[in-house]
Amino acid sequence: xxxxxxxxxxxxxxxxxxxxxxxxxxxxxxxxxxxxxxxxxxxxxxxxxxxxxxxxxxxxxxxxxxxxxxxxxxxxxxxxxxxxxxxxxxxxxxxxxxxxxxxxxxxxxxxxxxxxxxxxxxxxxxxxxxxxxxxxxxxxxxxxxxxx
Length: 148
Hints:
This protein is mostly loops. The protein has one domain (1-148): Pectate Lyase C-like (3 Solenoid). It is 0% helix and 3% strand. A two-stranded parallel sheet has the order 1-2. It is globular, with a radius of gyration of 14 Å. The mean pLDDT is 93.
């Protein structure tokens, strides 16, 4: 299976339920890929195209999604504790019940994202982070980084 991951384009690939800890999936096209229940702890998705991917219930602890496109992705119930989502495009993503505890969100685009029951305690964000209209990250435990 790992030789398949060497391909740059893996649209609609079914990778559900696998153990892909620390896998390097950077700069891959994974549009509509299925990762539900997959163990991706410490995996790298830097600058990957993940629009409409399904990460339902996936282990994404310490995963790196820096500058990744996750438009419309389903991350419901995913564990994103300490994940790096710096400058990630999460426009209209489903983060219902996701664990974002300690996640890094500076510059992330969360406009239109569903954050119902998402855990945000100790998540770090900056003034460039874009939240859904009316969403108060501070009230949910997220921490604003100072501009210094």
